[in-house]
Amino acid sequence: MLTTSYNVLFGKNRLFLNSVLPKLKFTLRCCSTNQTEPRKKTNLPEKIVSSFPVELQPYLKLMRADKPVGTWLLFWPCGWSLALATPGSNIPDLGLLSLFLVGAFVMRGAGCTINDIWDKDFDRKVVRTKDRPIASGEISRFHALVFLAGQLGIGLSILLQFNWNSILIGASSLGFVALYPAMKRITYWPQLVLGLTLNWGALMGWSALHGTTDWYSVLPLYAAGVCWTMIYDTIYAHQDKYDDAVVGVKSTALRFGADTKKWLSVFGVGMITNLFIAGHMSSQSWPFYASVMLTAIHIGRQVSSVKLDDSNDCAEKFQSNKYVGLLLFLGITAGSFLK
To answer: Which residue from 21, 151, 175, 292 puts its CA 20 to 30 A from 2's CA?
Structure first.
């Protein structure tokens, strides 16, 4: 009886229903996806970049002006070293801090340009980087090289504002800047080369103020910075580990694998130990040690809680390190002032 009723009601229209229902389901699914999919938030640097003329935006994105965390990670070791060298009852020289900040912005941009010129073919094959200006074709390699020359020219003009000892130290870092992109093709430890590069300012800050360098203080500070980079950039590399494995890019994320948190814990101990040594050698006072302890707590939580298979969580943990740099800078500044 039910079968007969079904045939009477729908038999003639069965073909129609079979053709319409899939389309209806697809439409409903699309509507559902659009309602539940979160909109990407636009931060202030991205809004600033988008306010520039369209012709300039690809170049600003090439130097990562819309993602300034890298500038802070390059700047903070400079600030730490300058604050560490500051005599008691004083604050770090604001003029030198400004030079370091502008220099960090320009040279970080130059480093990103060099990296993207090297990695054009790799970036096209990785989901997170396929829209970068060179990889996407918005900027040719030739125009990127011209832009790089301009960045390096500005960087040189900033470097020449320092004393000669600092100029020599700063210029010697360019080898690491150029070498880093190649390391991703050669070794599973490119993050180590990046750490040696990004923390070079720890060797410059003291020299910029005094014209000489207290190596007993700045070398442990530099080592602490390198360990710090090994932590945050290994977490960062976990965002792309699956794509990297396919295209042939090497990283500590792939090298450490399931043992990543154990390795990061070792680097965390190395960072904190070297910070204590740097503080002792420079006769720091209690605010410095308090900031180091707070840093140890932050790093411990970061390592223990990071979800290495969740790219969004890895990105958030990476971003949080700009506050680690600020915390240490404030601690060193207060510690030097109270010496």
So the answer is: 21
